[in-house]
UniProtKB/TrEMBL annotation:
GO CC, one annotated term: plasma membrane
UniProt name for this protein: Co/Zn/Cd cation transporter
One Pfam family in the UniProt entry: Cation_efflux
UniProt-listed NCBIfam families: CDF
Membrane topology term: Multi-pass membrane protein
Length: 300
């Protein structure tokens, strides 16, 4: 299909991105819920604090998909005079909720683990505990692959980050397996120690998530995106120099503006150049919804 620069095509791209993003959230939520419920059943049978820590974390990960889903729904609201850019920034609020849930899961896991260190309890059904850890890893990895793949396709940094988060969580599930093996080998406090290690790993993940959410809240942008837009503009016909490029995330979509200089001799030529430059950026970066290009004369 030939590429079109009609504004309707940009709307279609945004709607397709929204639909794919919501589908990814629905499917991954179902997978993570099934994984967490399976692990919870084994926790009830075994009393493993390491598995409890991992289960609580997986439940929190399941819940974090809900505000992101709501944010995707709000992004479809029509812009108004009060909200002229729409409600796509609701995705940043969802990010704050995700940060709080990760922090809460780390606190719960750590408190339970410390309690078990001072008040050890026997862990039964170790085979099931190890199996549940493997299930946790498999569920997180499936979700990670799916979210990252869809996130990259639609240009959603939040969905990609959520996928990377799920992948890291899968390795905490493997820690449960290590704890279960430690108990089998005669180290009864291995379960509680691994629970603490999981809490620390969750805290490390929290640091990365805070940085990512903070970048969006402060209108930050990945420098490589600006570099790409500058490269496209610089290679647009009749553009002599790129004076400025600005981009900002609005949810999982991009808006921006630029100033370029040219030796075009008429206002009509300058207007055509601005349109061509805007279309070139949108074609090279499909997640850009709006790009306003201002043309200045390069004549001295």
């Amino acid at each position: 299909m030939p590429h079109s620069h009609d504004p309707a095509d940009a709307i279609d791209d945004a709607m397709r991105a929204h639909t794919e993003g919501v589908r990814a959230l629905k499917i991954s939520l179902a997978i993570m819920l099934a994984t967490a419920l399976t692990q919870a059943a084994v926790v009830a049978l075994s009393g493993s604090v390491a598995l409890l820590a991992d289960t609580v974390h997986n439940f929190s990960d399941t819940l974090t998909a809900v505000p992101l889903w709501i944010a995707f729904a709000l992004s479809r609201r029509v812009a108004t005079r009060r909200y002229p850019y729409g409600l796509s920034r609701a995705e940043d609020l969802a990010g704050l909720f995700i940060v709080l849930m990760i922090a809460l899961s780390a606190v719960v896991a750590a408190s339970e683990s410390i309690q078990r260190l001072f008040d050890p309890r026997s862990v039964s059904n170790l085979g099931w505990v190890i199996a549940a850890g493997v299930v946790g890893f498999a569920g997180n990895e499936i979700v990670a692959i799916y979210r990252i793949r869809v996130g990259r396709r639609i240009g959603s940094a939040a969905l990609v980050a959520d996928g990377v988060h799920a992948r890291a969580d899968g390795f905490t599930s493997l820690a449960v397996v290590v704890g279960g093996i430690g108990v089998l080998l005669g180290f009864p406090i291995a379960d509680a120690i691994v629970g603490l290690l999981i809490s620390i790993m969750i805290g490390v993940l929290l640091i990365g998530t805070v940085r990512s959410v903070g970048l969006r809240l402060l209108d930050g942008i990945e420098p490589e995106l600006v570099d790409r837009a500058e490269h496209v503009l610089a290679h647009t016909a009749r553009v002599d120099a790129v004076e400025r490029v600005r981009l900002r995330w609005v949810g999982h979509r991009l808006r921006g503006d630029a100033i370029v200089s040219t030796r075009a001799t008429t206002l009509i030529d300058a207007d055509r150049l601005a349109i061509e430059a805007e279309h070139a950026v949108k074609q090279a970066m499909p997640n850009v919804d709006e790009m306003t290009v201002r043309v200045r004369s390069a004549r001295t």
